[in-house]
Amino acid sequence: MKRASLGPVLVLLAALATAGCTAGSGAAVATRTARAVASGLAAPARCPVTRPLPHVAPPAQIVPVASGVPLPVPYIHGWYGNAALWIGVPAHGILPAYPDSPSGGRWGTKFPWWRVMPGTLTITARRLDGPSAGFHGEVPAGYGDAGFTPSGLVWPAPGCWQVTGTVAGRSLTFVTVVTFVKQS
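Request: output the structure for the sequence above.
Response:
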């Protein structure tokens, strides 16, 4: 299996680290995420993870972020979207989650969305391989009506998850394997 390139952890990770989402400092998250992705994790075959759209460029609003540069979040690889929303697809179908406190009571993932259509982003999720009660999406205010929007995805359990973002009555759904990564 090809190991994921860590690429530059720049603009997007910095924005996510300061967005009011859970999971620790930007540098610490980047290091733990890089280890998890580089460890060769792969989604189980029974989880129909979403893959990037081949040969499809994101809309012009996203191009400055994506113009030939690897996505600046180590667990994101490739693009998936529609007329309302775009996401960076989790590498190998794996989305890492980290404890947001030393006690590890909640597990969270900082996750970027790009709103093509103006409106408020809401996020829901359901687990495809077990109970899903307890998920919630945190979307901070202050990112304007469209464009980049960071989020915090809070998971009650690891597993195969279907995540849906909705803006202006239009939705984008993707499937990923959420794995809990302990702090070192």
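The chain has a mean pLDDT of 73.
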